[in-house]
Amino acid sequence: MVGSMLDRITEGKCLFILGDEGIVYDHGRQEIYALNTAATYLWCLIEDGRDEAGAVADYAARFGLADPTARSHVVALADEFSRIGGAEGPDRDAQPDASVAAPDAPPLTEVPTPVERSFRVLETSFLFRCATRAQAERIEPVLARFAEDAGREPDVIVDLRQIDGALILYRSGQPVGIYDGLDALAPAVKTCLWTTAINNFDYFLNLHSGVVGHRDGCLLLPGASGNGKSSLTAALVGSGFPYLSDEVALLGDDCQVRSIPLSLCVKNTGWDIIARYFAEIEELPEHRREDGKVVKYLTFPFETCADPAKSYAVHTIVFPCYVPGSPNELVPVSKADALARLFQECQSIPAALTRTRVAALVAWIGGVDCFSLDFSDLDAAVAAVRTGLEK
Predict the structure, then answer these.
(1) DSSP assignment string, 49-68
(2) Calpha distance 204→265 (Å, rounded)
(3) Can you give the pLDDT at residue 1?
(4) pLDDT along the chain (391 residues), means of 10
(5) Which of 180, 132, 296 lies closest to 230, judged by CA?
(6) Is the dihedral of CA 330, 331, 335, 336 positive or negative?
(7) What is the pLDDT of residue 15?
(8) Closest CA to 189 of 317, 65, 46, 287
(9) How far is CA 283 from CA 144, 268, 271, 289, 365, in A?
(10) By the 8 A CB rule, do 219 and 171 touch?
(11) How many CB atoms sit inside 10 A of residue 158's CB?
(12) What SS3 string covers 138-185?
């Protein structure tokens, strides 16, 4: 059984060595997989053309095992290898969706728009036009760090119209959303500008991650929603770390990360926690996202934000997860496991992965310190991060 598996396990895939572990790249599925030391060794044996008997003998000698035990390991690993690329991959876009979302809205008509605001997000300039100051004030907390003086010819014009009680948002003359109140406006405009800007920007990977500065580089905090990523990001900023982003890290071909200091989005479940570090959140207006969640947008002072025109080298990656009762300790993560976990938080890849690009990622993460952090107390988590960075 194992022998028939060995012939096809490595087909269409290639192995990269990271220390004593490995990364398997499946080009057809555009996926990577982490292998531990034993699995990496067996994969190398298969690539070298070992048959079943030879693989078992070499594996037994390498790890000091009796042949029956070694064979059971080889059978189990070969079975795991055969499933690589067989499961459904993560839901990842080539680019964020910037399609028209409100085709039934009336066409945009030219009417006086006395209130205008100019923004520059990444490399795209926007002009936002609306009828009232109250409407403009609703979006300003989200984009405060991207405001620019009027006068530049905008790349994109975003218009807000109020028709029959509904607020309709248009991008470049096309409707992108219909909303029933001012409290839904800021999240809608943020999404509109952000998806447009990122589609106009040259990047390698779009990672779901908090980002804070450290020395001349930055620290990534990747994690799924609900893991405490934004809370930890805010606590680190409150303790002196420069702010780059609370939810996105755009990794360039040079594996550096662009600063994108959009105002930190805090769900209502986290307002009390964040208020310990930034009391002003209690007075901020509430906003309603399209997913129904109620949020506030916390704008950090200029002096606490990294330069939005610059990119920063990644020195450290910490995978945070809020776990009640956890010890608040940084635990080293292998480079192979860290890269695989990083891909789990990858939201979009604008260009297809290639062997050369994956090789560059493997080389990059080889020089990055990687940790996991299960935390139950934010102050203790911040202290653990500081201690880990000083080592």
Answers:
(1) T--HHHHHHHHHHHHT--HH
(2) 24
(3) 42
(4) 60 89 91 93 90 91 94 90 64 66 81 90 94 92 85 91 91 92 93 93 95 94 89 95 94 94 91 93 93 92 90 96 93 95 92 92 95 95 93 75
(5) 296
(6) negative
(7) 93
(8) 287
(9) 17, 13, 11, 19, 41
(10) no
(11) 22
(12) HHHHHHHHHECCECECCCEEEEEEEECCEEEEEECCEEEEEECCHHHH
> Which residues pair with residue 207 across a beta bridge?
249, 346
Report field, pTM of the whole predicted structure over 0.85: yes
pLDDT for the residue numbered 87:
46
Amino acid at 71: R
pLDDT of residue 338: 96
Burial class for 45, CB neighbours closer than 10 Å (0-12, 13-18, 19+): buried
pLDDT (0 to 100) of residue 90: 56
Which whole-number Å values give the CA distances from 197 to 77, 108, 130, 365, in the listed order? 44, 22, 20, 27
Cβ within 8 Å of residue 281, ≥6 positions away: 266, 271, 274, 275, 296, 298
Measure Cα distances from 32 to 29, 221, 319, 341, 357 in Å.
Answer: 9, 20, 18, 10, 12
- Could you give the residue ranges of the DSSP H alpha helices within the chain? 2-6, 37-47, 52-63, 67-83, 133-143, 185-199, 229-238, 271-275, 335-344, 355-365, 378-390
Structure tokens at 57: 């003998």
Name the phi and psi angles at 185, rounded to 5. Answer: -75, -50
Beta strands 311-322 and 369-375 are: parallel
- Dihedrals φ, ψ of 38, to 5°? -65, -45
The residue written with tokens 């020395």 in the block is 215
User: Which pairs with CB-CB distance under 8 Å and at least 24 residues apart come from 380-383?
Assistant: 380/328, 381/232, 381/235, 381/320, 381/328, 382/232, 382/235, 382/236, 382/239, 383/328
Per-residue confidence (pLDDT) for residue 4, from 0 to 100: 52
Residue 91 confidence (pLDDT): 61
Burial of 97 (0-12, 13-18, 19+ CB in 10 A): exposed
- Give the whole-angstrom CA distance, residue 318 versus residue 134: 40
